Amino acid sequence: MSIIVEIAVDPIGTNSTSVSNYIIKVVEVIEKMNLKYQVGPMGTSIELKNLKQVGDLLQAIHDELNKQGVNRIVTTVRIDDRRDKEETMEYKLSRVFKR
Asked: How many domains does the chain have?
């Protein structure tokens, strides 16, 4: 099974309009979980083996941001759960840039 998840995390109620320090913490969580990912300008794409990992990942991200003092977090999640064949992030991008 091939699952690609895109998440966008918005910390609410911080003292700055900048979120880069929080996104760095999110990336550290993803790296600690040994997941393949690509950071984009508006979200991060991650390859997962199953849907259960989505919950584990989101819990770890929210817990880390809360440790950083964020008491409210809005997270947007998009899931591409393709079950007829394996696709990677690179494959999907290559299909677009090939043309």
From this structure: 1
